[in-house]
TrEMBL record:
It comes from Sinomicrobium weinanense. Residues 108-185 form the Signal transduction histidine kinase internal region domain. InterPro entries: Bact_2-comp_sensor_kinase, HATPase_C_sf, Sig_transdc_His_kin_internal. GO terms for cellular component: membrane. It comes from the Bacteria. This is Sensor histidine kinase. The chain crosses the membrane at residues 65-88. Pfam families: His_kinase (PF06580). GO terms for molecular function: phosphorelay sensor kinase activity. Keywords: Kinase, Membrane, Transferase, Transmembrane, Transmembrane helix.
Amino acid sequence: MIKNDSLAPEVTVPMETDSIYARTHKGEDIMPGPPFMIRRRFLRHGAENVEIQIPPEFNTWKMRFIMSLRAAGVLGMYFVIGAAIKIYMEWKRGEAIRNQVQSEKITSELQFLKAQLNPHFLFNSLNSIYSLSVKKSNDTPEAVITLSDLMRYMLYEANREYVPLARELEYIKNYIKLQRLRLSNGEQVTLNIYGDEKDKKIQPLLFISFIENAFKYGTDYTGKTVVRTVITIKEDSIHFYIKNIIGRHKKDSESSGVGLQNIKNRLELLYPDSHKLDIEDDGEHFTVSLTLKFTGHETAESISFHAG
């Protein structure tokens, strides 16, 4: 039994073989614990002092060694956990930086490719209007207005990441309209669109390089131009198909590599593993078939395609 001083009520501390319980004057359990002698002094205002007396059998070098090992184990565990957390946070920070650098690199490359596309498009369009003006065609004013619409789209809308599919199709229609105006056999130039473009979005200017290429090299030795374009819109994808005859400019076809390589690079950046591109040249006809996967939202879904 442990007796209290005159300032505190008497507290009885029963000793047992494996635990000890200190009780207040109200009989409430304070602490179960190892077989240590505990002397509790209760002051008037509720403050308390606790004195712990360690039995001699616990005050040995063997017990101290065991307790030191336990303490070292606990400290080591905290150190390992802390180091693991620090390594993970550093990895996450590095991953975020790498992703940001990669994103900035892709954005820079896309801006460069678009910068190449705009002059190429303008050069071809001005050639079409020049042909009309040389012939003193009455269609020249209409061609200028159509070119104005095309340039407005390229300057103010095509710089977005995604555009409404309906606007992109309108842009394609205007471009083909401009080409028809300069041709004597415009009836050989066809555009067919199937499906519903409502509420769907797409990366801008993905098809125009193929269309430009078809008109540039699709005129035969008699001056006849044959270009057939078909666009099929499905719920989750769009298929673009264009076919032209191989005309008198075939010898210069290597110079068209800028436009075609441009679009190939853009497709790899924008739709990695989400597009299928097939290009065929049988000596008489040049055919492009391109399938893209889209959702109609601001992002494109991936699809397991292998680029041709």
